[in-house]
Amino acid sequence: MQITTLEKELSGCAYPGRGIVIGRSEDGSKAVTAYFIMGRSANSRNRVFVEDGEGIRTEAFDPSKLEDPSLIIYAPVRILGKKTIVTNGDQTDTVYDLMSTGKTFEESLRTRELERYFIVMESLIALMSVAC
């Protein structure tokens, strides 16, 4: 595996969409997780991140222009004790809710629809070592 920079990876992609970056702080003492979003449609570009006490959620920048909230309004980051849950959609709430009742990360994801489960796994599987 060749090590590259995030800047190099993203500069070669016309539309990176949503992304989760996991790593360590420069001094290696802390885990670092970052989440980013882009949007092609006017609806997707009409969102901002807001801290809400339990993590980060998206909300409409201009509520009067919101068309379909189902794919753009969600909490990509939730904090559960010492665990940080980061996903690329509303599955964050599924993982958070079920882990708060004692379910594992994997058990929580398995409650999702099969088609979405595989998409979610691409984004989340790396979080297990950071979040659990």
Give the structure's gist in a few sentences.
With 132 residues, the chain is of the alpha+beta class.
Largest sheet: 4 strands, antiparallel
Give the strand tally: 6
Please tell me what the overall shape is: globular
Order of helices and strands: HEEHEEEEHHHH
Arrangement of strands in the largest sheet: 3-4-5-6
Beta percentage is: 15-25%
Mean pLDDT: 81
| Unreliable runs | 115-132
Write the layout of secondary structure elements.
Elements: H1 6-11, E1 19-24, E2 31-36, H2 42-45, E3 47-51, E4 55-60, E5 77-80, E6 83-86, H3 91-99, H4 105-109, H5 114-124, H6 128-131
Characterise this structure.
There is one protein chain. Helix content is 30%, strand content 23%. Mean pLDDT is 81; it is low at 115-132. The strands form two sheets. It has a four-stranded antiparallel β-sheet. The protein has a two-stranded antiparallel ribbon with strand order 1-2. A hairpin with a 2-residue loop joins strand 5 (77-80) and strand 6 (83-86). The protein is built from six helices and six strands.
